[in-house]
Design a protein that fits this description.
The complex is a heterodimer of chains A (about 120) and B (about 110).
Chain A: E1 3-7, E2 11-12, E3 18-25, E4 33-39, E5 46-52, E6 57-59, E7 67-72, E8 77-82, E9 91-97, E10 106-107, E11 111-115
Parallel strand pairs in A: 2-11
Antiparallel strand pairs in A: 1-3, 3-8, 4-5, 4-9, 5-6, 7-8, 9-10, 9-11
Chain B: E1 4-7, E2 10-13, E3 19-25, E4 30-31, E5 36-37, E6 39-44, E7 51-55, E8 59-60, E9 68-73, E10 76-81, E11 90-96, E12 103-104, E13 108-112
Parallel strand pairs in B: 2-13
Antiparallel strand pairs in B: 1-3, 3-10, 4-5, 6-7, 6-11, 7-8, 9-10, 11-12, 11-13
Classes of the chains: A mainly beta (about 120), B mainly beta (about 110).
């Protein structure tokens, strides 16, 4: 059973870079697509982007200029970097994957990131 | 971007009664190459990540109770809970994966009347 776990700072200062890591267990990151999705408090879900095991990426155009998703196959992890953050980036950040299926069948528990000075 | 809308925003249904949630996409999510609708439904309870219920618009994920069903094609879709149980209180989201950016509906909150 594939399991995902997000980790990273819960507080980031405005204008700085948010950095999160998703550790995958029970499955190999060397296959399929690996995604980041966020949810501001009390609001809906926003897809940030994904990385394929080949290294190719696809980002939401609304965030594209600030987002980088990368893969570390040696650690079975993938990461998110979001630069120049503002209060609007305060959200629960989830890592998720379809793991070859259809729809996001596997999610981490999420990590709340607050942007504040 | 494909814009997803849902109706109603919220609904309250008596235990054992039917709950129906509608989802509409701004363009068709039916792929002509395989005749599949790239539409999924999720359930999210407070403090939890979303849980996949339905994919390909009508295929139930393994382990999901059969009181949950999905229907529709093209741009109009429905999630039906045939007999609402207390544990079904949640927010439900539709999502299209036909094209990127992947987009979600705004959610429908389901409560017990």
């Amino acid at each position: 059973q594939v399991q995902l776990q997000e980790s990273g700072p819960g507080l980031v200062k405005p204008s700085e870079t948010l950095s999160l890591t998703c550790t995958v267990s029970g499955g190999s990151i060397s296959s399929y697509y690996w995604s980041w999705i966020r949810q501001p408090p009390g609001k809906g879900l926003e897809w940030i982007g994904y990385i394929h095991n080949s290294g190719s990426t696809n980002y939401n155009p609304s965030l594209k200029s600030r987002v980088t998703i990368s893969l570390d196959t040696s650690k079975n992890q993938f990461s998110l970097k979001l630069s120049s953050v503002t209060a609007a980036d305060t959200a629960m950040y989830y890592c998720a994957t379809t793991y070859g299926g259809s729809g996001y069948g596997y999610w981490g528990q999420g990590t709340l990131v607050t942007v504040s000075s | 971007d494909i814009v997803m809308t849902q109706s109603p925003d919220s609904l309250a249904v008596s235990m054992g009664e039917r709950a129906t949630i509608n989802c509409k996409s701004s363009q068709s999510v039916l792929h002509s190459s395989n005749n599949k609708n790239y539409l999924a439904w999720y359930q999210q309870k407070p403090g939890q990540p979303p849980k996949l219920l339905i994919y390909w618009a009508s295929t139930r994920e393994s382990g999901v109770p059969d009181r949950f069903s999905g229907s529709g094609s093209g741009t109009d879709f429905t999630l039906t809970i045939s007999s609402l149980q207390a544990e079904d209180v949640a927010v439900y989201y539709c999502q299209q994966y036909y094209s990127t950016p992947i987009t979600f509906g705004p959610g429908t909150k389901v409560d017990i009347k």
